[in-house]
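Re-running Inositol-tetrakisphosphate 1-kinase to confirm reproducibility after the cluster update. Everything else is unchanged from the original entry.
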Amino acid sequence: MSKPESHRYCVGYALEPKKVHSVILESLVDHANQRGIDLIQIDRTRSLIEQGRFDCIIHKLYSEDWKKQLDEFSSTYPEAVIIDRPQLIERLHNRVSMLEVVNQISIPLENDTVGSPKQWVIKESKTLDDANAIEELGLIFPLIAKPLEANGGPNSHNLCLVFDQSGIKKLSIPVVLQEFVNHGGVIFKIYVAGQHITCVKRKSLPDIPEEKQKTMTGKLPFSRVSSLAVRNDSHNEEDDTAQNNVEKAEMPPDSLIEGLAKSLKEAMGLNLFNVDLIRDASDPTRYLVIDVNYFPGYAKLPNYVPFFTNFLWDIVHSKTA
Ligand SMILES: Nc1ncnc2c1ncn2[C@@H]1O[C@H](COP(=O)(O)OP(=O)(O)OP(=O)(O)O)[C@@H](O)[C@H]1O
Ligand SMILES: O=P(O)(O)O[C@H]1[C@H](O)[C@@H](O)[C@H](OP(=O)(O)O)[C@@H](OP(=O)(O)O)[C@H]1O
Ligand SMILES: [Mg+2]
Ligand SMILES: [Mg+2]
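Result of re-run:
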């Protein structure tokens, strides 16, 4: 075991209890401790300033009161690093602004392209009921309907596949209708923590064959497919095939993974996020970003403990973010 470092740094974390449970594991606390970093839970029942000096604060809380407390804390301790600024995180709480940035960056790539699927936003319920208005939008079925807000609220992961106009009527507004792209049932999840980047493969929604696209009608709800894939221990033939597809899938080129992660980090000014990326089954040079999440489930990564500790170490040692 390495020698504990003599100078100690203090990193405060402010997260919902569920997130503390899923991300701040004992193994992380112990490892960080060995590297001179004390991970301290911020007490949400007391004022932040009262809790003294932190070298760095990591957080995933969005209330106005919390934002005010962070501002006060920064004024009192200007040298402390806040990961990340709430105003910058907000872009990821809306499924339109989260993908806009993908189309503003440019990544030097030889053959591949990175973009986002076509999407339409519907904000008024009368539009859902108006067959003419829907037709005029020129939607391309099948679609994925996603709540516009992606702020961790109870409905923000309630998605559904929509096969024709009849499926649109029963959606809740505001909703984003996104072109469904067949991608071989495999999703690439790029996790970013400051300058540390890693990519894993996961099971995704299966392809919808063309014959099926013509016969399916209405809508089909689903929720949290890629998380299910992490937890799934059932064994049926369909799952085995899906798992097989994941294992066989070739990773995107390193230059694409790094280029995309670094450009997005720069453009958004954020340190802690992941990117969901798919590869078009009918054009394997076409990559599409479908989702960007703030402070995702890092503990699902196989190298999570050193990965996250290295990030914290960089921050407290450079004191710049
Ligand atoms: N445009 C698309 N084409 C094909 N499949 C898609 C598309 N968008 C999403 N999916 C599928 O739906 C799943 C959930 O979509 P998305 O990641 O946008 O939702 P989310 O609720 O924000 O997920 P997360 O739990 O990662 O935050 C993806 O993992 C993928 O399997
Ligand atoms: O709880 P909200 O704010 O909705 O955010 C979720 C993200 O949307 C998911 O992407 C995270 O899971 P992944 O790390 O598997 O993407 C998921 O990670 P979790 O499994 O630690 O909850 C959450 O960060
Ligand atoms: Mg996702
Ligand atoms: Mg998401």
